[in-house]
Design a protein that fits this description.
Blueprint (H helix, E strand, L loop, with lengths): L4 E8 L2 H10 L1 E6 L7 H13 L2 E3 L5 H13 L3 E3 L8 E2 L2 E2 L6 H10 L13 H6 L8 H12 L6 H10 L4 H16 L2
Parallel strand pairs: 1-2, 1-3, 3-4
Antiparallel strand pairs: 5-6
Helix pairs in contact: 1-4, 6-8
Length: about 190
């Protein structure tokens, strides 16, 4: 059976939650690093909310609510998904990662996501052509570009995913690359 593909980006607390959500739904997922949610990660989530909208799916406990409230107070285009506490407990451990695929899917469906096919605008070839991977200064270029586009610094693979997920316009990306090249020439 084909998984539901949604437009919004799901915001969860940790890496195990990402795996559980991706097993249930075809979507982009960002984790907050639990209560370790820092300003840089919050800015990435805020940008995601502007570009595609977000669905917050945090653990049904005090830290989960605190994270949900922090994001909700700063971001726009926010939807909320909830799973009952008893469905998230396994061997005394509470967390979204313990919920079944069906419970995760139902929670996301209840949040009324936008379902659509999203065409990726950029490819690995574009990353190579723009010098964002495979070059000596690719990492620095991705960091500087991530700062300009407000999508953060990450690996080449994740960067490609983000520029596509955040619907970055090719002209915007190319203008930012020109700005970076000028900056490098003046260093």
């Amino acid at each position: 059976m084909e998984k539901l593909k949604i437009k919004e980006i799901i915001v969860v607390e940790g890496k195990d939650d990402i795996s559980a959500v991706k097993a249930a739904v075809d979507c982009e997922v960002i984790d907050t690093n639990g209560l370790g949610l820092n300003k840089e990660k919050l800015n990435i989530i805020i940008e995601a909310s502007k570009k595609r909208g977000i669905i917050i799916l945090t653990d049904p406990d005090y830290p989960g609510e605190k994270i949900r409230n922090t994001i909700n107070s700063k971001a726009e285009n926010v939807k909320h998904a909830f799973i009952e506490k008893e469905k998230t407990i396994k061997d005394g451990d509470l967390g979204i990662e313990n919920a079944s695929k069906e419970d995760i899917l139902q929670a996301i469906i209840k949040a009324k996501p936008s379902v659509e096919d999203i065409e990726d605008a950029f490819t690995i070839k574009d990353m190579m052509d723009y010098g964002l991977m495979g070059m000596e200064n690719s990492s620095k270029k991705r960091k500087d570009l991530g700062d300009i586009l407000n999508i953060g610094f990450c690996s080449a693979k994740k960067f490609l995913k983000r520029i596509n997920s955040f619907n970055i316009n090719r002209k915007v990306l190319e203008r930012a690359l020109i700005d970076i090249e000028r900056r490098y020439e003046n260093e």
